Amino acid sequence: MTKIDITLADQGAAPVTFGSPAFHHLLDSLNDAAEPRDRDTEATVAAIARVRKARLGALRLPRAEGGGGATLRELFETIILLGEADSNIPHILRNQFAFTEKALRLRANPKFAKVLNEIRAGRLFGLGASELGTPNIGNGDSETSLTPDGDGFRLNGRKYYSTGNFYFDYIYVRSKTPAGVAVAALIPITRAGVTVDDDWDGIGQRRTASGTTILKDVHVAREEVVVLAEEDPGLPHDATFPQLYLTAIIAGILRAVVRDATALVKRRDRNYYHALADRPAEDPLLQQIIGRLASVAYVAEASVLRAADALSAAYDSASVGQPDPLLFEEAALKAAKSKIVVDELALNAASHLFDVGGASAATQRQRLDRHWRNIRTIASHNPVAYKALAIGRQAINQTPLPKAAFF
Fold this sequence. Notes:
Layout (H helix, E strand, L loop, with lengths): L20 H12 L1 H4 L3 H13 L18 H14 L2 H5 L1 H12 L4 H11 L4 E4 L16 E5 L2 E8 L10 E7 L5 E7 L5 E4 L14 E9 L4 E3 H4 L8 H28 L16 H36 L5 H28 L16 H11 L4 H14 L10
Parallel strand pairs: 1-4
Antiparallel strand pairs: 2-3, 3-7, 4-5, 5-8, 6-7
């Protein structure tokens, strides 16, 4: 793994809060160089350094505990705004924010209380979960092993799609003991035997470092092991948060599509000889396209935030120790419906962006294709067809929704 200089925030400084001047300054700084970051890892490292300095990873911690005090809805609004600035950044942070929700829920456990202290200090957490050798994707099975070794353990395995780990401080690695007990190891990314390769070669989200994490004879102390069934039992439809998070990023990219399409029309001086107006900005046909793009972006954002409200209600039930399965199922249903429609609308919108610019909009110099590539890549993370099938089965036959990952 390439050494990344980790500079933590000034512990006397307050973390950024939703809607504050510092919050908007951070967004502006991330937006300024979003296009160059599409092809430059070092620029993304610098962007994550700004995120770390602002302690954005602590956005959901209560203010009284040194966090940003954001509601769940405000977190999703933040993800949308980050997606508009540079969709790589919120995608990198997805596991950080998901793990923060877990730590907040399990804060009575000293292991997760320690995690919250680290998040408060500005450190970032990643995940090691996906494996190519697992035949049934998303069922939680793992070939990564945690075996006893003296007074601790040794961790061995290979994880794929390790989004963000290249930029992080810790990873939460799912594995199994020789007896088949599902566990997780919470270890520093710099520990001997941990290798994080920035080998993601996707057509989009190029700087998310969604590559490979290799674990070879990594020492794990007993206090770094979480027995999942006992200490991290999860929630009903536990995958709703990360699934809705991806749709929120797409909603943010749609805002960028509207922004870039509008700017493209404004700066054009020429129009076709048979167009409806001499100047593109005065052409009713182009104005109509911009209006439709803006409407799609609005609907996408509204659907994400509606689902976020449902998830917030479900989380509220869990915070008092009685997770309501019906509330969690409703949140999962809303998140799935949002994805099915938003994915299709977004891909179509990113294509129509080129309709307002002519051939010059397709130059590599403008790199407007990154919006379509990024949407297509994010949308590929979980299957639309199977989600639609599950929703239809529930509507017709009251068949329960899937409860594991990817739904």
